[in-house]
Specification:
4-stranded parallel beta sheet; globular
Length: 107
């Protein structure tokens, strides 16, 4: 099954290697296909850098890991009213573009 995870799940997994999101990500990578987009990777990068002050080498390793461990797609352009939060539309577009059966978020 293809699964899209939003940036909040990926960030939580990066911060806490033993938390719920880390376990969920491990399960996705082990038993399913993770679908992401450059938008999601860039959002993870920006938040880890600006909000959590992650070291740049760690951010580069995570970006590389995500690009190699996941199916990377270009999000489908959806109308801004496709979901309640217009900022989440590219994540939803990622799920659609990747034919994901499941979208995982902490929202």
């Amino acid at each position: 099954m293809r699964v899209t995870a939003d940036s909040s799940v990926l960030i939580a997994a990066a911060i806490s290697h033993a938390g719920v999101c880390a376990n969920l990500l491990e399960d996705i990578l082990t038993s399913h296909e993770l679908v992401i987009s450059p938008f999601v990777v860039d959002e993870v990068t920006r938040k880890l850098r600006e909000k959590f002050h992650f070291p740049e080498p760690d951010i580069r390793r995570l970006r590389s890991f995500l690009r190699h461990a996941a199916v990377v797609v270009t999000p489908v352009n959806l109308p801004t009213n496709a979901c309640r939060d217009p900022l989440d539309v590219p994540v939803l577009g990622t799920a659609v573009a990747g034919n994901a059966a499941l979208l995982v978020t902490v929202d």
